[in-house]
Amino acid sequence: MQPKVFEIDPCPKPRQTAADRWKVGSKARPAVARYRAFCDNLRLQAGSWELPDSFAVTFTLPMPKSWSKKKRAELDGKPAQSKPDLSNLIKALEDAMRDDDEKVHMISAKKVWGPFGKIVVFPITNILFQVEQQNENISKDGAHQRLVPSPTVVGKEIPRISNPLSELNLPPKSGRKTANPKFPLKRGTGTTS
After folding, report:
1. How far is CA 111 from CA 2, 27, 145, 172, in A?
2. How many domains does the chain have?
3. Burial class (CB in 10 A: 0-12, 13-18, 19+), 35
4. What is the pLDDT of residue 34?
5. Which tens digits make up the pLDDT trace of 94-131?
6. pLDDT tens across 65-77, in order?
7. Helix ranges restricted to H, 79-183
8. How far apart are CA 134 and CA 145, in angstroms?
9. Residue 149 in contact with residue 128, Cβ under 8 Å?
10. Cis ω before 14 (30° cut-off from 0)
11. What's the CATH code of the domain at 46?
C-alpha cells in the first residue's frame, strides 16, 4: 500500500468538556472549533481511504513565520520538540479517521518541522504478527512445526539467556537478614524488637 499524504496542518485533540458537545458555531471554544474543522477537512481529503489497523505516521508541523531563513534551513526535517504533544496529534488522527479506533494495535509516530504542515500515514506490517498468523495456520493444518523468529541485530543473532541473573557472579546468600540494623529481628519470631 502507498502512503497517504494529507496536506493539512496537524491539530491536537483538545480536552473537551460536557458543554463542548452541544456548543457549535461561534459558541464553541476556539480549540474545539479548530479541532472539528481539522477532522472535517481530514475526512474530506481521505475520501474512501481508511486508516489501517497498524500504521506509521509523520506529523510535519509548519515552522513559524517569525523564524529566520537560517533557523528554518537548520530545523527543516528535524524533530519538533514543542507543543502540541504527539499523543494528542495521534488521538486527533484516530478519532477523525476511525469510528472503531480500539482496533488500532500498533502505531509508530514522529513529529518534525517543515515549511508547511502535512500528515503522512504509512501502513505497516510487523514480522512477528506475520509469524503468529503462520503459526496459527500451521496448527490448524495439524502440523506441529512452529515458526519462531530469532532476534537479530544487523545480521547477528542475539544469544538467548534463560536467566539473566545466573550470568552475574553474585556472592551466595548467607546469614540472617535484619529489617533495619538499628532494630534487629527477634530470634525465631521474624519480628523486630
Report:
1. 20, 31, 42, 50
2. 1
3. buried
4. 86
5. 988 988 878 888 888 999 999 999 999 998 875 555 54
6. 999 999 999 999 9
7. 86-97, 127-141
8. 10
9. yes
10. no
11. 3.30.1330
Is 170 part of a structural domain of the chain? Answer: no
- The values of phi and psi at residue 69, to 5°, are -65, -35
Q: When comparing pLDDT for 158 and 92, which is higher?
A: 92
The whole-number average pLDDT for the span 17-46 is 82
**Is residue 150 one of the residues assigned to a domain?**
no
pLDDT: which is higher, 12 or 134: 12
Grid cell 517543515 — which residue? 114
Looking at the chain, which runs of residues are DSSP E strands?
A: 4-6, 54-62, 106-114, 118-123, 152-153, 156-157
Amino acid letter, 168: L
Q: Which domain holds residue 48?
A: 4-123
Q: What is the DSSP letter of 109?
A: E
Q: Which segment of 56-65, 154-163, 169-178, 184-193 scores lowest on mean pLDDT?
A: 154-163
- The conformation of residue 24, written as its DSSP 8-state character, comes to -
In a domain, 114, yes or no: yes
Is the Cβ–Cβ distance between 17 and 27 less than 8 Å? no
